[in-house]
Amino acid sequence: MTLLSNLQIRVAKHAEYRRTLRALRRLPLDVALDLDIHPGDAKSIAHQAIYGR
Prior knowledge:
mainly alpha; elongated
């Protein structure tokens, strides 16, 4: 991959991470807890979903 395409992929993944994190943080508490998502876990869940690590 070229430097430019690598950068474009990283920027796109970071944008998707931010969208995912924002969506998780906006979940009503009762819905999040029903899904076994605790508010403090939003960052790690979003990171795992996008980056797979």
